[in-house]
Design a protein that fits this description.
Elements (H helix, E strand, L loop, with lengths): L7 H27 L3 H17 L6 H25 L3 H17 L5 H15 L11 H21 L9 H18 L9 H12 L17 H21 L12 H22 L4 H18 L16 H29 L19 H12 L5 H22 L5 H11 L4 H29 L3 H22 L1 H16 L8 H23 L5 H28 L13 H20 L18 H18 L9 H25 L29 H22 L16
Helix pairs in contact: 1-2, 1-6, 1-17, 2-5, 2-6, 3-4, 3-5, 3-6, 4-5, 4-14, 5-15, 7-8, 7-9, 7-10, 8-9, 9-12, 10-11, 10-12, 11-12, 12-24, 14-15, 14-19, 15-19, 16-18, 16-19, 17-18, 20-21, 20-22, 20-23, 20-24, 21-22, 22-24, 23-24
């Protein structure tokens, strides 16, 4: 860091604090001293603090302004409902549970709804406490609207910050990289150099969710976000397969392999144009479909009379290359289709496969319902978090209503801000918050005693303290934030009513009550957070994947006589398992060390959860590709080899699943990284067709995923994230 420069964390926090301070102070002083409306002043200030300080809406200032503008009608509704339900304790408590659950569960809609939810909770909590005065609803709405309207303008105009590259732009850059390297593979040495392989990994790495700013991640339930997520996954798959294409002595300039790679390059370029300029990649898409069909026909020629292999005698190395190039073509076609859907929605020009792109023809309410229904179960971390926070807020409102807790609003605010997804994290936050609140209460008590009823002093100090509090608090942590916020609320309430030093005592009591309630429900409701759920979810994912591996390899071996539609072979169940595992993984990444300091039940040396999620995606995609009609027989030797290898891979999945989520009598012996019996399946049957090599290539990639799960720490070739396509 250069001497004299403000640290980046403080600079970012300071810019946001400046916007919140300017708007909150302006709205508060306008109504309190200009229009003599304490009610409107309170709602103008706390509305701004709710959406600007408590909420963690990701993105630039303009992006956050757009989110606040969209949720403004929700803010009005929450103030109205909170005002009318607050007159009776039972209605206020019931409303708190329903509204609290709904707002917390809205996190299924992506990072922006999740970031706005805490602020919206505060806007419902505020009118739920005295004075119980429905007649003041007009002033409350005027204050809320004024504060949020000023905040929208401030976010958009005051130091909005530069916008990072969007995910769509990142995908376009990755498609450009894919086009370049697909072209290189058509000329000697017909394989990528080490530097080129590293470049493909870097291009794929740029699409990983952890490297993308949260506001730019396509995590919503709509067609655009789903298709953009699918675009990123297909592009990363394409880059990896280009890097792994086996070398060959050379393809003739007019060969089917060269034609496919040239067309892949053209389609990748067209996909880049689609993502940047909106032009449909129809022509190169159709060219690649035709080129892929010609290559598949050339390497899957009619079987010889004895049924042991193709009439065209391709060497095994050539068939392996054909299978790899066909997988490259599949990834390129998926990338182009997803990009067209992301840009054009239901008006996409390219042909859309109904299975892989099931969401293409669905309306927005249906997609939202699909997302909500997928997480409306107790194994979903979104559902668990919503239940936990709703129960805690309900209990806090009940205690405040029955015991007439002074300033019970602060108790609920403490419950909302201190309840975490794990008990360890909740307890750690409570300890720091209580220490900070005690320090803030001491400062508050001394200030109120010294200044007394001189509101002019409080009016001068409030904006200065607010600027410091919202700058330092987010950087220094919850202890500093609670301590400085304790002083801040005292400066506000000292201008609304005659202050006494007992205000600091009440603040300390309320935070203590709210913390205790948060700790109780943090202990009772899923205290381990996502750690246990991730373990169960990925184990279930591997069990579903094992079923599909067995069914798919058997169908391929029998030439389609046992083939079944995707829904019948478990694809839908595996898609749902991937949804739950990905949501648990997303929360897992944000949590500290597990409850109790270790992951219960995991006997593997270290778990690469990301590899588990990718195994689920690879299982789905490979199975769909291999089961595309028409299926032809492999011949006895190849069928036996493919079926046996599929059984071995499925068995390995079950063993890893048991290690991740053991029962009481699960064997605890160390699990070898690779299946030692697979060496017997390495011998290639004579005369095996292309479909055999495609099947073996798919199963081999799954075994690679499984070995990474047990090994931990993925290598450079495994630079992919799992991002939800089916959720």
């Amino acid at each position: 860091m250069t001497a004299g420069r403000i640290p980046a964390a403080y600079a970012a926090s300071g810019r946001r604090a400046l916007r919140v301070t300017v708007v909150a102070a302006a709205g508060f002083y306008l109504f309190r001293y200009g229009l003599d409306s304490p009610v409107a002043a309170t709602y103008a200030l706390f509305g701004t603090v709710a959406l600007g300080g408590l909420s963690k809406i990701p993105g630039t200032g303009r992006q956050r302004a757009a989110v606040v503008l969209h949720v403004l009608p929700v803010c009005w509704l929450l103030v109205v409902i909170g005002t009318y339900l607050s007159v009776r304790t039972w209605s206020a408590v019931t409303g708190m549970f329903v509204v609290g659950f709904a707002l917390a569960f809205s996190a299924v809609g992506g990072p922006r709804p999740a970031g706005a939810a805490p602020g919206l909770q505060l806007l419902y909590i505020l009118p739920s406490f005295p004075p119980y005065d429905p007649a003041s609803l007009g002033e409350r709405l005027i204050g809320t609207t004024t504060g949020l309207a000023l905040f929208v303008a401030a976010e958009a105009l005051i130091l909005p910050g530069p916008a990072p590259p969007s995910y769509q732009e990142r995908a376009a850059r990755a498609a450009h990289t894919a086009a370049r390297y697909a072209t290189l593979l058509t000329a000697p040495p017909y394989a990528l150099a080490d530097a080129d392989i590293r470049a493909t990994h870097e291009a794929g790495h740029a699409l990983r969710s952890l490297t993308v700013p949260e506001a730019e991640r396509p995590a919503g339930p709509g067609i655009h976000d789903r298709a953009l997520t699918h675009t990123g996954l297909a592009t990363r798959t394409l880059l990896n397969r280009l890097a792994q294409l086996p070398a060959t002595p050379g393809d003739p300039p007019g060969s089917a392999v060269t034609a496919v790679l040239h067309t892949v390059a053209r389609l990748a370029t067209a996909t880049e144009s689609c993502l940047r300029a909106g032009t449909a990649p129809v022509a190169p898409y159709r060219e690649l479909v035709a080129a892929r069909a010609r290559l598949a026909a050339s390497s899957a020629a009619p079987a010889s009379t004895d049924g042991t292999g193709p009439a065209v005698d391709f060497p095994p190395a050539e068939l392996r290359r054909h299978a790899a190039v066909l997988e490259i073509a599949d990834a390129a076609l998926a990338m182009a289709t997803a990009a067209d859907l992301a840009v054009r929605g239901r008006q996409a020009s390219v042909e859309v496969a109904p299975g892989r792109f099931w969401y293409a023809s669905a309306c927005a309410p249906c997609l939202w319902w699909h997302r909500i229904r997928g997480h409306a179960e107790r194994r979903s971390v979104f559902f668990q978090n919503a239940v936990r926070i709703a129960m805690a807020l309900t209990a806090a409102r009940l205690v405040a209503g029955l015991d007439t807790l002074p300033h019970g609003f602060w108790a609920m605010l403490a419950t909302l801000t201190l309840t975490r997804t794990t008990m360890d994290e909740t307890w750690s936050s409570i300890r720091r918050a209580l220490a900070g609140t005690l320090a803030g209460a001491l400062v508050t008590g001394g200030t109120l005693v010294l200044v007394g009823a001189d509101t002019a002093v409080y009016a001068v100090v409030l904006p200065l303290w607010m600027l410091v509090a919202f700058t330092v608090g987010p950087v220094k942590g919850v202890g500093w934030a609670q301590g400085m916020f304790t002083v801040l609320v005292a400066l506000v309430f000292a201008q609304l009513a005659a202050p006494t030093w007992r205000l600091a005592e009440v603040r300390m009591l309320d935070v203590l009550v709210g913390s205790a309630i948060g700790a109780v429900f943090g202990l009772l409701a899923w205290p381990r957070g996502a750690h246990d759920e991730l373990r169960r979810a990925v184990a279930g994912l591997l069990r579903r994947a094992a079923e599909i591996v067995v069914a798919t390899s058997a169908s391929v071996a029998e030439g389609g006589s046992t083939a079944a539609p995707p829904a019948a072979t478990g694809h839908r169940s595996l898609q749902h398992a991937v949804i739950l595992a990905e949501s648990a993984y997303a929360q897992f990444q944000s949590e500290p060390t597990p409850f109790g300091g270790r992951r219960r039940g995991v006997t593997l040396p270290e778990v690469d959860w990301q590899a588990t999620l990718m195994a689920g995606h690879h299982t789905l995609w490979g199975s769909e590709r291999l089961l595309e009609p028409p299926l032809t027989g492999l011949g006895p030797a190849a069928a036996e080899s493919a079926g046996g290898l599929g059984d071995r891979v499925a068995g390995r999945m079950l063993l890893v699943s048991a290690a991740l989520d053991p029962s009481g009598d699960t064997p605890t012996a160390p699990l070898p990284l690779l299946d030692p019996a697979l060496a017997g399946f390495a011998t290639e049957p004579p005369g095996a067709p292309r479909l055999y090599y495609a099947t073996v290539s798919w199963l081999g990639s799954l075994m690679t995923d499984l070995s990474r799960i047990a090994r931990g720490g993925p290598g450079p070739e495994h630079s992919d994230d799992a991002t939800s396509v089916g959720s």
